[in-house]
Amino acid sequence: RRAGSPRSRLTMAAFARVSALRALEVATVLGVAYLCLGELWPHTRSSPFRGQMWRRQQVFLLCSLSLAPLLLGRTHRLCNAGKGGASTCVGERTALWVLALVNTVPLLGAALATLWSDEESAAYAAILLDAIGFAAARLARLDLAASLMLSARGRSTWAYEATGGSVGFAEAVNLHRAAGWWCVVQSGLHGSLYIIFYAVRGGPRMAWEATFPVPTEGKLNRLGLVNFYGLLALVAMALLALTSLPRARFYRGFQSVHAGLGLAAVAAALLHDLPILIFAAPGLVDWFAGRYDDLPAGGRRLPARARVIPGTSGPWVELKIELAGPAAAAALSLSSPAGAWVGLSVEEISAEVHPISVAALTSTSMTLVVSGNGGDWCDRLASFASKRPRLWVLVKGPYPSGGWRGSRSRDPP
C-alpha cells in the first residue's frame, strides 16, 4: 500500500482522532485527580494546597474540566462516525466503589495526619475534630459538584457528552443519588464535628454562640451567622434526602419538591461558604442546559393520540405522537428505537415529566406504551385516554440508551 494512497491517509486520520481522544481522556482524568488531591490533602499549616494560589488553581481546574466534556463528546463522535452506537464505559458498580473510597480514605488520612501535630496533647481532641471536620467539608462540596453534574438530562449534559453518549440521565441517576447521599453524610459530619469542636474549646456557651446568630457584646455575631446558614443548608439537605426515599411510590410529590429543596440547600451553602459557588456553578449550568436545551424535540409541544389497549390489565395505554419538522429530524438521528426513551409530560394531567421507553419510531410518528399499573399519573392517563383520545404532550428527546455495563437499576429516573 502506497504511503500517499487514500486508504493510508484515512487510516492515519483515524489514528490521529483516536490518539486525540485518548489524550483528552487522560488529561481529564489527571485534572480530576489533581483537583481531588488538592481538595483532600490533609489540612495542615505546611500544606502545599493553601492560600490564594490554590484558590486560583481551583477556578482554572473547574473551568477546564467543565469544557472537557464538550471536547470529549465531539472527539467521541468523530471516532465513532459510521460505527453506530456509543463507546463503552466503566461499570456502574466500579464508579460507586470509587465514590465510596474518595469519601472515606481522605477522612482517615486527615485523622492520621494529626498524629504528627506540634500542638500540645491537651489540645489534640480539638485538632482531630478540626482536621476531620475540614476534610468532610471539602468532600461535601466535591460530592455536591458530582451530584449536580449527574442530575441533568438531555444530550447537552456533562455525563452524556463526556462519555460519547454511553451515560445519559437514566444511567447516571444511581451515581447522582449516591453522590447526593454522600454530600448529606459529609455535611452532617462536618456540622456535628464543628459543634463539638467549639464545645471542647469553650464549652456549651461557645458552641451556642458559634452556631446561632445570637448577639455577642452588642456586636454582630458573624461567626454564628455564617454557621447558622450552614445549619440551614444541612436542614435543607436532610429534607432533600428524606423526601427522596419514597420517590418510586410518590414520584409526583418527589418531583415537585426535589429541585426546589436542592436549590435552597445550595443557596444556604453559598451563604455559609462562598467558594462552594465554583463547585456548584458547572452542575447548575449543566442542569439548566439539560432542562431547557434547544435541540430537536427538546421540550417541544406535539400532538398525540391516546388509545387504551383492549384486554390489558391496568389498563395499558398506547400513545402515538406525531412528529414534524425538527422533531422528525431528531427521530431519524437514531438508527434504531431499541432502548431509546423520552421525557414525557401530558399537559391535561400535570406538568411532571416521566421517562418512557420508545416502542416504535419512524420519521413521522413515535409510539409509546404506558402501563396503567405504574401509579396515579398512569391511572389518570388511562382514564383520560378513554374519554379524549386527542391530546397535547411535551416531549424531550428521544435519547438513546446508555452503556453502563451490568446496570441493574429499576427505579424511574
Structure notes:
Its main location: membrane. The structure is a single chain. This protein has 413 residues and is α+β, with helices and mostly antiparallel strands. It folds into 2 domains: 88-291, no CATH class; 298-399, Elongation Factor Tu (Ef-tu), domain 3 (Beta Barrel). Helix content is 58%, strand content 11%. It has helices at residues 6-40, 51-79, 92-113, 124-149, 158-162, 169-211, 222-244, 251-272, 276-291, 326-332, 376-387; strands at 298-308, 317-322, 341-346, 354-361, 365-370, 390-399. A 6-stranded antiparallel β-barrel has the order 1-2-5-4-3-6. The longest helix has 43 residues, at 169-211. It is globular and about 75 Å long. The model is unreliable at 81-88, 294-298 and 403-413 (pLDDT under 50).
Secondary structure layout:
Layout: H1 6-40, H2 51-79, H3 92-113, H4 124-149, H5 158-162, H6 169-211, H7 222-244, H8 251-272, H9 276-291, E1 298-308, E2 317-322, H10 326-332, E3 341-346, E4 354-361, E5 365-370, H11 376-387, E6 390-399
Helix pairs in contact: 1-2, 3-4, 3-6, 4-6, 4-9, 6-7, 7-8
